């Protein structure tokens, strides 16, 4: 960020804080928490129940690597009880804002922290397989990592609102049991594709944790951040890879424009290799619209699994009893 933008931001935050006394008093019984990403928003809504008002910044289809906080976002963050974000530089344009909020003693919580502290983050590889020396920010794609974030979120809510600590802890425990069911189902599901075909090719490197969790090789056209644009060499390298490995299908991500993957498809065809595109987009860094199946963390992950299985022509195992939300019939019928 250049100096003038930093200064503008700083002044804006001061102003937003200054107005704090003047704005309409919020419901004293409710915490007001800003959530940057759709995943964090979903978890806080589940954990917080009626006690927390969660303000989302990014909606469905929004790329968090590129998202610039708006002035109204900064105003919301400046007057919230805390800001919960994903972290590991996923929110690539927020560093200065978080720093400024910290200087103003507004609590910011990176929900990836316990995953990093446990040593469960993985390094990033680009297409030339050189270490990029940054932690891969897409940790939530292993449900066991997300369970650690859920525990942290519940603990942080309890610290902010000790009167309801028991409720937050109980909500976290119940939700993590759901995530256990999701992980078991997804493990069984992702094993339906024969081992030698388990290669997931997508727009950018969002699926390393997903691949590691479920025993798949993953390849992204772009690097760990969509800020690293794919060049001609990246396209050619991926084309060679899909031809050599005889990959039948690649996937477009909902928060990344499809043209780069389509370029790979065209270039592969020019070299005599027909490769399909998945039956629908995968959710990578953003979930689906509010109220849709893919608008929940559980639905987002499950829909990705279902989309992958359908695209590979594999069978979908039975949905676990008690795991909510249940996949809609239209989603399951889209096979073939
Ligand atoms: Zn990403």
Structure description:
The chain has 336 residues and is α/β, with parallel strands linked by helices. Helix content is 43%, strand content 12%. It is built from twelve helices and ten strands. The chain has a four-stranded parallel sheet, sandwiched between helices. It is globular, with a radius of gyration of 21 Å. The chain starts with a helix and ends with a helix. About 5% of the residues have low confidence.
Bound molecules: zinc ion
Low-confidence stretches: 18-26, 125-131
Helix content, binned percent? 40-55%
Task: Give the ordered list of helices and strands.
Answer: HEHEHEHEHEEHHEHEHEHEHH
* Strand neighbour order, sheet with most strands: 2-1-3-4
Structural class: alpha/beta
Summarize model confidence as the mean pLDDT.
89
Shape: globular
- In whole angstroms, the N-to-C terminal distance is 49 Å
| Beta-strand content | 5-15%
Number of strands: 10
Report the major sheet: 4 strands, parallel
Question: How many helices in DSSP terms?
Answer: 12
Provide the gyration radius in Å.
21 Å
